[in-house]
Amino acid sequence: MVADAGAVVAAFLSAVADHDLDGAFALVADDADVRLPAAGVNGDAAAARGFLHATLTAFPDLTVRARRTVVAGDGTVVVELTLEGTQAGDYLGVVNQEKHLDVDEGWLFRVRDGRITAIHGYWCQNQVYRRLAVRRLDQPAIV
Question: For residue 111, what pLDDT is reported?
Fold first, then answer.
């Protein structure tokens, strides 16, 4: 198993980009601290896997592009990334209109002993809604 924090996170993101959730979550501790506040996800590895599964299902052509990575000596890794894809199914309450999504995000990972122990992801949910043609931001449905 990869021990370097930056390499562990790169392998995780590469597996997600390849739509290989089994490979990605082989690198994540079951009790990892997961916080994705824009999506209302707080929990463990299963919560993160569920969110990413829903994302990959709704965007089957999803690409993940890491633009910048900062690795700290304590196992903390911060990644600026862009997600892009075309909606093919309902997502986070938004009806599928086959809109293209591209959203810049910031993800913080903590790695210990070659395993990801924390995943915190941040992005502008209003940007997601705008890209998916939601007119009212207080209700994620087409009106």
Answer: 97
